[in-house]
Design brief:
alpha/beta, 11 helices, five-stranded parallel β-sheet, globular, 51% helix
């Protein structure tokens, strides 16, 4: 019986990995055929970006969501071409939490984001770039707490380095972290169900931070 349970668990894990990879691939192929225009505002990132209806949130038909659930900074670099070739008006980037979850170092996150900025500045120089902070997480009394304790302390130092990188590259850094963190530096429970992803109220708080720049 124990062997059967172990095998069943392994199959579930394998199935989850495959499903995520398939989702990522399907979304990439979709984004390769959907055009990006010079009048567009592109939101780029992982599941936290993917999970929002940005055009509706801002009532702006020029906003296009290019978030993919589960994406990491290195994987994201592989799908930039269709966006850069469209020369969008603005780019709002949030990426890095999945890197930290997977054990990647902040150095790797910073290097990949730096490379992304360099590509846009070289190949789509009129695109205004906004790098948004990695959001806080919250594990207390929520699923996955033990796992989150390992990487949660890396978020604030990584954000400080992101801000310095943006200053160095001459792009705008937006501190969304501050609007969503509680007094202990965790993701405010008002904004999440699982301690990582956002509820509607969380997206409203995010919107209010970046609204002056989304126009």
């Amino acid at each position: 019986m124990k062997r059967i349970l172990i095998l069943f668990t392994a199959l579930l894990v394998a199935g989850s990995v495959f499903a995520q990879s398939e989702y990522n691939l399907r979304k990439r192929t979709l984004f390769e055929v959907l055009p990006v225009l010079s009048s567009d505002i592109v939101f780029l990132g992982n599941s936290i970006t993917d999970g929002c209806e940005w055009a509706e949130l801002f009532n702006n038909r020029h906003i296009k969501n290019r978030g993919i659930s589960g994406d990491r900074s290195g994987w994201l670099l592989e799908r930039l071409d269709p966006i850069i070739e469209g020369h969008p008006k603005k780019l709002f980037l949030m990426i890095g939490i999945n890197d930290l979850i997977s054990g990647a170092s902040p150095d790797e996150v910073l290097a990949n984001i730096g490379w992304l900025i360099d590509r846009f500045q070289a190949e789509s120089r009129w695109t205004k770039i906004y790098v948004q902070s990695i959001l806080p997480v919250n594990g207390v009394d929520l699923p996955g707490y033990e796992r989150r304790k390992a990487y949660a302390p890396l978020i604030v130092p990584t954000n400080k380095r992101l801000e310095a990188l943006c200053d160095e590259k001459g792009v705008t850094y937006l501190n969304v972290w501050g609007a969503l963190a509680d007094e202990n530096g965790n993701l405010d429970k008002r904004y999440t169900l699982d301690g990582l992803h956002l509820k509607g109220e969380g997206y409203l708080a995010w919107r209010d931070v970046i609204k002056p720049h989304v126009k």
